[in-house]
Amino acid sequence: MSQKDVGNKVPIYKLKTTDEVMKYYDEWGENNKYDKDMIEWNYTGPKETVNIFKKYVKNKESLIFDAGCGTGLVGLELKKFEYKNFHGADLSQKLLDIVPKNLYQRLLKVDLNQSIDIKDNFYDAVMCVGTFTFGHVKPSALEEFVRITKNNGYICFTINEGIYEDYGFDKKIKSLKRNNILKEIEFFKSDYIASKDVNAWLGIYKVKK
Hints:
8 helices; about 35% helix; Rossmann fold
């Protein structure tokens, strides 16, 4: 984190607890400042991730879980490519309230650091963009994503480069691959928030059960 001083460029990266994050996002959602900042920052995470996702998930009827959906930026990208069935989940009710009407078939207020109240093998795919970052969702969420995804389904996500090793995402992914739970399809460093010199690892994996 210190090498790029991203905490001063993106203030939310300084937050440590779930309560701090929720309070910040609730305030960020006022007057839709969140979306305005994303445009100003040239936040490309949703677009980049959906561009990778659509290469492998061809069925536009696939049921998709957008984990950490915020104001629906990933949903808007999915809609562009005619995906029809996606659910969104986020910690901030304020951001969920900003999501365009009728974009998602279902919206849930969820703490992704806890067990998700969704049955096993429910979704065809899980997307998680911009949520694996400083003070947000921990690596253990990947196991929950695997649980709620069908065999041969896909998990597609970004991980802020500053926490990839510090939070243990590298070890968690290596373990899931070693145990033949996740099969790596693509994994590379993306621009993410180029205007702030913040990069993220972008990965798509197939679930094996």
